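Exercise 7 asks you to align residues with tokens for two separate proteins.
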Amino acid sequence: MDERRFAKLYEESVDEALSVLGPHIANLIKFYVFEKYSLRLKDTYNNPTVLTESLKSVIDGATRVIQRRILRLLYEKVGIEPHFVITEGFEKKVLEAKELFEKKK
């Protein structure tokens, strides 16, 4: 149950963060993830490296901006105060948020 709830929070965070790029770019990223990795974007919560690689391939320079936005939204939705500067280690921080979320329950 906790993993499904976290997955939903992750999906909402990613969708909200990608919305700043507009629907065409957001859909392009979703398509890229599916075509290259056979995953739905929302299923990258267990392997956020897939999302990072996809963002770099599709939008390159804006990758960090979107990653920071995803992390801020995700930590807010999970109810955890981020105690870090969001500059590096996106994948690790997503997985840490998942662990912290599971411990809270």
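Second protein for Exercise 7:
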Amino acid sequence: MDLSLPVGMNEYYGRNIDTMPRILEAGETPIWTAKLMEERLNRGKQYPHLWKYRDTSDLAIFPLETRDIFYILLTSDNKGGISENGKKGLELIKEGNLTPKHWATVENLEELRGDNLIEMKVSQKDKPYYRGWGLKPEQVSKFDLWRVIARHPDFVPEKYAHDENLLEEYNYRVRVKTGINKVMRLEMGNVLGSQRNLPIDKTFLALYSLWTVGKRECHETVGTSTLCCGSIVNYERGSFIGLDKKLFK
């Protein structure tokens, strides 16, 4: 028995376009960002494997019309139930539905609409942070993307919300684990930066991921916690956790 993760959590490694169909076929719920943050806080000491790089089921959708607005699709509620539009979004992560740069194609954005499709506006002031600038600890709790991803009850529908203190507690724990202050980063430069590598004729989606958190004795940095969004639906080293339905009964 694999004891690196709590009972009811199953690891899936490899290309997300291969593993996502397997997770859904198994009747499991792919872990979402706030759930992973919560599990890291509550059981990360007993199961340090939780702090490794993980992809999540929160989807970023970039419409054809503009790059100043994007959407976050929260595919499952806080009880592990996958919504109808969430399932449609996850089912797009499959072989044969890729743009040339390995994002997943969205043919009909209207099919994904619902109260769990959250519109995000990217201001000129915030663009540097989306491209990888580190957020200072006091900035994290005020940054809308982090608040939506952490599912603060003021920013998402009630059935999707987590504890309002989750982001603050996670931010603090990351700082303790890494030993640095400038730790919470957003890597979305490849979709909000240069237009050269983007599909110019398609709406597309990407995955959010939480990177490894811990001290590293390399370069000038000893650790980071990064919320990554990019061309990873075809990432060969993808890492998902499937949650057994029994965990939510």
